[in-house]
Amino acid sequence: MKGDTLHYTLRGKKGKVRIPDAPKWPYASVLNLAVEQANKIYVPLIIQSPSRPNTPLGPCGAGTEDSIWIFGLAANRATIVGKKVVSSCINHVELKTEELGTPYDSIAWDAGKGAYKIDWAATSNKPESTGYLTYKTGRFW
Questions:
Q1: In the chain, which residue ranges form alpha helices assigned H by DSSP?
Q2: Residue 133 contacts by C-beta under 8 Å, 6 or more apart in sequence?
Q3: Has this prediction a pTM greater than 0.85?
Q4: pLDDT at 92 over 70
Q5: Which of 36, 91, 110, 117 lies deepest, with the highest CB count within 10 Å?
């Protein structure tokens, strides 16, 4: 992600598309998981923002809230077609591979389900779990 341009790779070919009215994200990272469904390209982006920017010394003051946003690309424009929180200091949610230093390796494309698969770590109040952002009628739910 550079400015308002999303760069991606699909089947070895590089592409880029402008995101109209792109917000100023503190941190945005393109996952190398672009897919094609129903003749449209979808690119996942991780958006990371501070948990509590107004209380940096309080609980989760240095923590982050991470979400996966799925962008659908058409006519050289990108639109948001799905998003989900994947890691949260405030809500005690973390990806399974987060403790290994490679947090986004917990997100993968599952071609059999036509979905982005997300593996979460166990926490003190929740067991290890897996969730899916599934493609249906032009959106990821």
A1: none
A2: 68, 70, 82, 84, 115, 116, 118, 140, 141
A3: no
A4: yes
A5: 117
